[in-house]
Amino acid sequence: MSDWYFEYEIQVNRPGLLGDIASLLGMLRVNIISINGVDEGRRGMLVHTDNDEAIERFRMIVSTMEHIHVTKFRQPKLRDRLAIRHGHYIPRDADEKNTFRFVRDELGILVDFMAELFKKDGHKLIGIRGMPRVGKTESIVAASVCANKKWIFLSSTMIKQTVRNKLAGDEFSDNNIFILDGIVTRRSTDERHLQLVREMMSMSSIKVVEHPDMFVQHSEYKIEDFDTIIELRNDPDEEITYEIMEKNQMMSESNEFGGFNF
């Protein structure tokens, strides 16, 4: 009993092509869970069967069909499931396979993507890059809600600059999502906060670090420690730089009422 992802490129878009494929699946008693166009010229199907032999028979038959070219046939990955839901694949860095790119217009897909990551148990370290006010923190919180997880800010600039130096009660639960701002934490001189971050990093839980490149500077952590890196831009060509963010951070620190430390 398993799910399979089937994707094909249309060679000849004749009437009845989808019906023929659906009928073949029906005769083999393979259930179609969802169908959608996946990028231009391709169609994806998420199917389910109680008999994997039927999948092998289907694979052999469709490989001989002249009007389609099979591009993927595998047990579904997270990117496959999201492509079916949203109609296109999340772009991924060609060299760094764990780096995924989004633009602000795709916040719905980003939230969906992170929520699926958050639903998994155990340790996962996620970094998210992006300029100020692009939607990083809001997306993390929304994804936590979708995953039915409690989120805990260890450091943040969402409303005021916030630095936590202790947790209480169920805040130490492995089921929580721990969020920290890499710039705020790296510039913090509060040893209690830094110790809390070290404790959190050793927990078997999900951690999300905004500005991971700044977080790893002058620390025991490396960018290779991150399981997933997300890049969020206002537009595809936007450059992510840290000069403006560090300047905003320094201005915030110079403001007598600029932050909370608790």
TrEMBL record:
InterPro entries: ACT-like_dom_sf, DUF3388, UCP021288_ACT
Stretches assigned to the DUF3388 domain: 70-259
Pfam families cross-referenced by the UniProt entry: DUF3388 (PF11868)
Protein name: DUF3388 domain-containing protein
